[in-house]
What does this fold into?
Amino acid sequence: MSAEKTPIPLGSNFIRAIVEKDLEQGVYKSRQWAGSPGDAAHHAAGQPDPAKIRTRFPPEPNGYLHIGHAKSIFLNFGLARDYGGVCHLRFDDTNPEKESQEYVDSISDTVKWLGFDWQTPAGSHMFFASDYFDFMYRAAESLIEHGHAYVDSQTAEEMRASRGTLTEAGKNSPWRDRTVTENLNLFREMRAGKHADGSLVLRAKIDMTSANINLRDPAVYRIKRSHHHNTGDTWCIYPMYTFAHPIEDALEQITHSICTLEFEDQRPFYDWILARLAEAGLLADPLPKQYEFARLNLTYVMLSKRKLIELVENKHVNGWDDPRLPTIAGTRRRGYIAEGFKLFTDRIGVSKADSWIEYTILEDCMREVLNEASERRIAVLDPIKLVIDNYAENQTEDCFAPNHPLKPELGKRVVPLTKTLWIEREDFMEVPSKGYFRLTPEGMVRLRYGYVVKCTGCEKDAEGNVTVVHCEYLPDTKSGTPGSDSVKVKGNIHWVSVAHACAAEVRLYDRLFKVAHPGAGDTDYLNDINPESVKVISVQLEPSLKDAKPEDKFQFERHGYFVADSHDSHSGRPVFNRTVTLRDAWQK
Ligand code: ATP
Ligand code: MG
It folds into this structure.
């Protein structure tokens, strides 16, 4: 690791301020790192830690990551990157149920896709909390040995009743004064499978009258005969999350353990556990510290794994990467890009107070980065024919369209012009409304990148729908030729040659929920699902789009940003998803 001073970027927040102060004061200077997670003895045999700070992103592998997790990833991996540290990707898999390899894989993919890596020159920093089960068990025995934990035989019901309330102190369990030997024996029997699930619980012995309910002898181990995806059937007792998490942080020498606000009341227990285990010589000083920030709440989406699981399992959407879901896999398939998430997280900042962020802010960020990143193409989404009656039947002429108006270095591509073109249905109006500057029976427009044409009439079907528009072109007006603008027109329409066009499917996505706060006021959020969240249409694309590869992204002029679908798009037969519309509807 280089010893150079890392430049600190702008866009500071209260967590960055804490990190900067800690670095300035050398709070973590004495830390040792043995190259892998471990207890005090393990790290004492190591080296001074080359990482100035250690953070972690600790997802439970029980679902796909969503936009809220992206905020946490940018925060944790971003701190490590900016302050000469390392961020661990830790799978918090201490809960035997609901966890699987599929989720581990998708979470790892997502972290990489967002631009981060747990692999550094010093090795891999992907860890699994279940690898610490042996230590956690040892930590629990240590608590018992020092009189800080006891085995409770109360039923779950009795425990609930004796916990007290916000205004009322709890009552001590009748089993609270078991001797150390009795507790150790019972705990070992729990581990050995001698007791039924739920019949005994190991509890920390703190204070049943504490004003903080989380300190009223919280459970630390429970009996649960359950197969674990990593440890199989080795264990029939599992640690509680609030006991496991601080230990995971300490074994990994995390300096700044950043979590969401709902864990604020758990911080005293976090500190209590670590202090007891450090006193016993099991954990290395200085200990990790927990800091809380406000979780991301976004309008029009649900950022809760439980609800996302429900939407997927009950088939309200088509899988975890359905482009309407706020999963990273879904938004990626929708055409969102990592740079957009970065801009978004920078823009919304990190705060200590819960609030709602408007979904349009995320969309604006995506537009901004996609505007930069996307080449322009022409697509006619609602095609009708335009015939240039005075144009030769078999003639094809090259017109040149810039690939990116802001980046002339990306050059131009050829769009072939012929006698019969596809144009947008809305670009012709038989009886024009005021201020309509596109094609009208007497009007003139420019075919973008081509000629000025003058309308001569239209054909209609039995229902009176326009099927073909007729026009004549003005030969001296071709874009890019001298004198081409001698004829002034107010409108400019896009088109695709019928003979060259590529027919394709386009999926126009809208919000999955029709209200900003689905399920607000304890209503069923499923009632708020937007029944028209996707519309599938048949379109005509310019020929260069024929060979679009999955995940290729473009701006379709006037229509918005589109991405070739990662499952269903094939060379010669592309399928595009609309990522987001353009900021302003086409006004001319
Ligand atoms: P959910 O409530 O959706 O199930 P979770 O918190 O249970 O999410 P974890 O896998 O435990 O999911 O989350 C991993 C990390 O991501 C945690 O550190 C958590 O604080 C953070 N995180 C989860 N949701 C959000 C959010 N909406 N905003 C910011 N960070 C989040
Ligand atoms: Mg969680």
Observations:
- The chain has 13 helices and 29 strands.
- The longest helix spans residues 67-82.
- The radius of gyration is 31 Å.
- Confidence is low (pLDDT under 50) at residues 1-8, 584-588.
